[in-house]
Amino acid sequence: ILLLCVLGVSAATVRYSVPEEVERGFFVANIAKDLGLTGEELSSRQARLVPEGDEQYLQLNQHTGDLVVQEKMDREALCGQSEPCLVRFDVLLESPLQSFRAEVSITDINDHAPVFLNKEMILKIPETAMPGARFLLESAQDPDVGNNSLQHYNISSNDYFHISTRRRSDGRRYAELVLDRALDREERAEVTFSFTAVDGGFPSRSGTALIRVQVLDINDNIPVFTRSLYKARVLENSAEDTLVVTVSASDLDAGMNGEIAYSIVQNSEENHQTFKINPETGEIRLKKSVDYEETKIYEIDVQATDGGGLSAHCKVLVEVIDVNDNAPEVILTSLTSPLSEAAPLQTVVALFSVRDRDSGNNGRTSCELLGELPFSIALLAADSYALVTAEALDREREAEYNITVRARDAGAPALSAAQPLLVRLSDVNDNAPTFTQASYTMVLHENEPAGTSLGRVSATDADAGKNARVSYALVLPSPGAPSFVSVDAESGAVRALRPLDYEEVRAFQVAVRAADGGSPPLSAEALVRVEVRDENDNAPVVLHPLPNSSAAAGELVPRRARAGYLVAKVVAVDADSGQNAWLSYELAKATEPGLFRVGLHSGEVRTARAVSERDAARQRLVVLVRDSGQPPRSSTVTLSLALVEGFSEAFLQLSHGPASRPEVEEEEEKENLLATYLIASLCSVSFLFLLFIVAFSGAKLCKGRLREGRSPPSAHCYSDGDFSNSFVDVAGTGTLSRGYRYELCLTTGSGNSGFKFLRPVLPSLP
User: Fold this and answer.
1) Closest to 68 measured CA to CA, from 84, 80, 56
2) What does the domain layout of the chain look like in residue ranges?
3) I need a labelling partner for 608 at 20 to 30 A (CA). Which of 127, 324, 335, 573 fits?
4) Rounded to whole angstroms, how far apart are CA atoms 423 and 403?
């Protein structure tokens, strides 16, 4: 009762009627009016028809509520001789779930005429047959039912017979030929007339066969059956040639007139195809297996004929016993797939019915689901079920369900059938994107150009389709805040927007949002920290001594200073960091290279040896400061030192020393210019010397050739007393000392004169 109340199942059945063979679109009824609903309610509640069988013969208009014919229906094909012929269906409404049982009765029209299986019948009747004797005739077949079925028989006019129409227990009519006057074989050996079957339709239809009655010679006794009605039972699906029943008749005549032959009067095509009789023994056997679901009772007319042509009739009723030979059938009416994962509880997923062609307990069925699934089966009506959701669904946990519905009957042994259902879940945007990391750390080298890739962020979404399509964007910073990076919306790649200076920005962080493509979209955020790596882009800066300070202009060093004396300390810094800021000091240039040294890491300028008197009073040192970057950068500072004995000398040297760095630079320029002049003069003198040697050698060669053409000159040597007084007295008044004697030799024609020191003239000792 509770289940019926929850599901809203209506116990009343709505009935309609429609003639068979009507065209498609034929109006049957307005269901909305009969159910007390409006067309808007039918549409909003998604009203639909759920047929009992496989075929959908009717169609429901959700907007108007009209029930119309969708496919032409043949009552004889649908129901055969069964009456009434009903097409059952359920009207299913959702929100809330309701089901109404309805049925349409297919009324018969007279579209079939009676038909005889044999167009010619031969009867053998003895001439001794008494008036009033009845003879069973073959029945005509008419698939129609009710008034449109076969109603009566008649025969053409003759002098001997009339027809009698009678009704069987199943309602069908059969004919008996009644003898009106005695037959005389000698007068007429054969009587022929037409036999007509007429139905009750309007207009009526009929079928005709020919009856030939052959008059036999006298035979005193007719066969007599032991019983006029035989009853037998046979299990359905019994094998071919199974014995059903044995009929028996006897004849008091002797000889050939007492020999009996059995035959089945063909009153239906079905009997002819199902049973056979042994003409000698009267055993009735199956020609094929019988099916309880098709025919439950067979009525057979058996005729016993003796050798003289006399015959008798009996009836045989064969009851088919049902066995559980039909497994239940699960007929799927509708299936919602894919099903939204957000479907609420009790959402209808599938509609199906169960049919078992057996009867009794063999046809009573039940349904169940195999396995533990978030679904359940709800009973809508007799043998009609709905598969509904019983728990919340989650596509990310289970994307599809393979559901097996098993129907089982109550037979012994029980038979079952399984119907697989594949229900796929459609995605709902119920999962936000998830980053692979809560925070990301990326490195950017300073001075990298715009567009440099720093890395990428990645997020996944457990949903599917567009709900899982993730796009990335930066969370907008506060107004006025600088933006250093960008994020590619598709790939999540993080790129620099402009070069950065480590000395200005050493690290920063931004928030990246990942949003899916759902509606509304869901999003998540992750923190990206960017660390700027230092590059060696800054040269060392000398803090002490400053280039224009007095310390750079002059430092005082006493001449009594020993080795290791601290003269000055160079202090420098580098704006870079790490290895790029590690500084080293070295002496690049000095007036006396061996006099001073510089601490490699301390920058202290100390004397390398003791100061001596030979060292210049003024010393100039150039200290190089170099960092450890790649490539290294460097700076220089110039120190001017004064070697002093005391305060007064120091004051004097400082007063005459270079007052400023520009003066020192001017002095250096003058020294460089003087060196240039010296080099130019040396080159000029060398050139002139070479030119003189060449000229002198040439003159010598020319004079040698002239002397070869003259007489050799005579040489005269003059001693100390040979000079006249008119000559200069080189001995007494010249610049040479008297203590020497000179010998002068002159040759005529000689262009040169020479002196020859002979020997010194030693004074005579007293």
Assistant:
1) 56
2) 14-107, 120-216, 224-321, 329-425, 434-533, 541-644
3) 573
4) 7
| Predicted pLDDT of residue 662 | 56
Q: What is the pLDDT of residues 525-558, one digit of tens each?
A: 999 999 988 888 888 999 888 776 654 556 788 9
Which tens digit of pLDDT belongs to each residue from 481-539?
678 899 999 999 999 988 988 888 889 889 999 999 988 899 999 999 999 888 888 88
CATH number for region 14-107: 2.60.40.60
Distance CA 475, CA 523 (A): 11
User: Per-residue DSSP letters for 452-475?
Assistant: -EEEE--EE-SS-GGGG--EEEEP
| 471/165 Cα distance (integer angstroms) | 89
Expressed in percent and rounded to 5, the helix, strand and coil fractions of the chain are 15, 40, 45
- DSSP code, position 656: H
Stretch (H or E) spanning 149: none
- CA 416 – CA 408 distance, rounded (Å): 4
CA atoms within 13 A on the CB side of 500: 25
Quote the CA–CA distance of 176 and 179 in Å, as a whole number. 10
Q: Which residues contact 334 (CB under 8 A, 6 or more apart)?
A: 48, 50, 350, 351
Please give the structure tokens belonging to residue 545. 């001594």
CB 46 within 8 A of CB 93: yes
CB atoms near residue 205 (< 10 Å): 20
* Fold (topology level) of 224-321: Immunoglobulin-like (2.60.40)
CATH of domain 434-533: 2.60.40.60
Q: Which two tokens stand for residue 497?
A: 């927007």
Taking domain 541-644, whether its CATH number is 2.60.40.60 is answered by yes
Fold of 120-216: Immunoglobulin-like (2.60.40)
Q: What are 124-155's pLDDT values in tens digits?
A: 888 888 899 999 888 888 888 888 888 899 99
Assign a CATH topology to domain 329-425.
Immunoglobulin-like (2.60.40)
Distance between CA 176 and CA 139 in Å, rounded?
Answer: 10
Q: Is the peptide bond before 143 cis (omega within 30 degrees of 0)?
A: no
340, burial (CB in 10 Å: exposed 0-12, middle 13-18, buried 19+)? middle
Asked whether the beta carbons of 283 and 156 are under 8 A apart, the reply is: no
Sheet containing strand 9-19, edge to edge, reads 9-19, 98-107, 86-93, 48-51
Tokens representing residue 128 in the block: 């001794």
Cβ pair 185, 132 in contact under 8 A:
no
Answer whether 301's CB lies under 8 Å from 265's CB.
yes
CA dihedral 695, 697, 703, 709 (to 10 degrees): -140
451 φ/ψ sector (left φ>0, alpha ψ -120 to 50, else beta): left
Cβ neighbours, 10 Å, residue 604:
16
The model's pLDDT over 179-195, given as tens digits with 9 standing for 90+, comes to: 999 888 778 889 999 99
Return the structure tokens found at 408.
């089982």
- Other C-beta atoms lying within 10 Å of the C-beta of residue 82: 10
Distance of CA 569 to the CA centre of its chain: 71
| Cβ atoms of residues 17 and 104 within 8 Å | yes
* Residue 622: HSE in the Cβ half-sphere, 13 Å Cα cutoff: 10
Q: In angstroms, rounded to a whole number, what is the distance separating the alpha carbons of residues 393 and 424?
A: 11
Q: For residue 235, how many other CB atoms are within 10 A of its CB?
A: 15
722-754: b (≥16 Cβ within 10 Å) or e: eeeeeeeebbeeeeeeeeeebebeeeeeeeeee
Same fold? 434-533, 541-644: yes
Q: Which of 429, 418, 352, 346 is nearest to 383 (CA)?
A: 352
How many Cβ atoms sit within 10 Å of the Cβ of residue 268? 20
Q: Which phi-psi region, left, alpha or beta, contains residue 349 (left: φ > 0; alpha: ψ -120 to 50)?
A: alpha
User: What is residue 334's DSSP assignment?
Assistant: E
Query: Which token pair is 670?
Result: 């003058």
Query: What does the alpha-carbon distance between residue 26 and residue 58 come to, in Å, rounded to a whole number?
Result: 10
pLDDT reported for residue 661: 52
